[in-house]
Amino acid sequence: MHADRFVQMCGSDEPLSDTFVIDAHCHVGQWVGMHAIERDIEGIMEVADAIGLDRLCINYAACPEMRLGNDLVADCMRSYPGRIEGVCYVNFFEGGEEVQRAELTRCFDELGFRGVKIIDMRGSFYPQTRDWLDEDDPLRPTWEFAQERGASILCHGYVTHEIAQRYPGANFIVAHGSGVPAFMLTLADLPNVYCDMSATSMLAGTLELLCEAMGPERVLYGSDLPASDPGQRLGMVMAAKIPEAAKTLILGRNMQGLLDNVR
Ligand SMILES: [Zn+2]
Q1: Distance between CA 41 and CA 261 in Å, rounded?
Q2: Number of domains the chain contains
Q3: Which of 28, 96, 214, 254 gives a 20 to 30 Å CA spacing to 53?
Q4: Dist. CA 6–CA 104, nearest whole Å
Q5: What's this model's pTM, rounded to 2 decimal places?
Q6: Which has the closest alpha carbon to 23: 244, 208, 233?
Q7: Residue 27 Cα, ligand 1 centroid: separation in angstroms?
Q8: pLDDT digits (tens, 9 = 90+) for 186-208
Q9: How many other CB atoms sit within 10 Å of the CB of residue 122?
């Protein structure tokens, strides 16, 4: 394969300005005990500008109170209109089904959010970490909401083959999925499951493997900014042994499609 324009730009000091790029997995706010390359939104946007990120999908899942965290994300959206996509964090420990649904509705209808984030804060990871019976599933309002709105859910834990199959109108992004390619392969047959490549550790050849197994249409560039350097992840896409058109999809077009799907 000859060197495409992305490969030729690797090592450049210039931002990737001629390609539409969305970082599908970013945060704001304090993450206790974790190093962050930037802490406030101004610093995060400086990093974004330096490498050419057009848009950032941001959540504040580490906030102990979900409304407060979502409001802080909404502040960021107001500060950088058109640059930030709000991703609503849902914490089912904070209340019952009504509280969960009310917060989702508030974020989407009043604050303009277009995505949902859930995380298993017990430190557990894939394969799935659900430990409740289906009829007691505390995240059911979130699955149902995403299904009604055609929204994507950034899932750090919790997503299973069964859940994704049960809610075909919702889209499921496996957060840090590039770090667990074997798990991703078990979901490869589901068209509403996507993989983000924000894993801290991503072995050589993983992106190529994911593209082959899932199709490049279901792989998303994401960095976990500010916990990780988005430039490093950007370089991994640019240098990958996949067609130039696939890189364009992964860097922004796929995530744009998921955002545009929301009603
Ligand atoms: Zn994250």
Answers
A1: 27
A2: 1
A3: 214
A4: 38
A5: 0.95
A6: 233
A7: 6
A8: 999 999 999 999 998 889 999 99
A9: 9
